[in-house]
């Protein structure tokens, strides 16, 4: 179920984002979808800028800045609907009045219960250190060889108190 959300859900978000971008442009607003615009892809930075886990655009961080949620130990974004969600973003010059955020700090919605760490088959999450992206990536790489084209894990986002709500 989680993997379908990751694959088909992301494909839907990408199509919806492009549709919304086109609609905004048709209404006279400049708009881009950073995650789908190659000018935002880290592979275009050259070797001197490459880091292990470099991203020029983060949907989760954009959602945090927009007031949609805060981060958990697994680095997923916890919203009022929980952590098992997907995001898309559009940058536009259309003015939208800001909403008031329901939080002040980056981890306000995480109870630090450690359930995501217990669920992690790669032991990549700990209450003390958060998430080790290297361990997570190594596990995903190993499993992707067996299950391509479908691969992923998501065990840190299911069967946790924040799966479908704020804890």
Task: Reconstruct the topology from this structure.
Elements: H1 2-26, E1 31-32, H2 59-65, E2 70-71, E3 77-78, E4 91-92, H3 115-119, E5 125-126, E6 130-131, H4 133-147
Antiparallel strand pairs: 1-4, 2-3, 5-6
Structure description:
With 167 residues, the protein is mainly α. The chain has one domain. 31% of the residues lie in helices and 7% in strands. It has four helices and six strands; from the N terminus they run H-E-H-E-E-E-H-E-E-H. Strands 1-4 form a two-stranded antiparallel ribbon. The longest helix is centred in the N-terminal third of the chain and has 25 residues, at 2-26. The radius of gyration is 17 Å and the shape is globular. The two termini are 22 Å apart.
Gist of the model:
Helices cover 31% and strands 7% of the residues. The chain has 167 residues and is mainly alpha-helical.
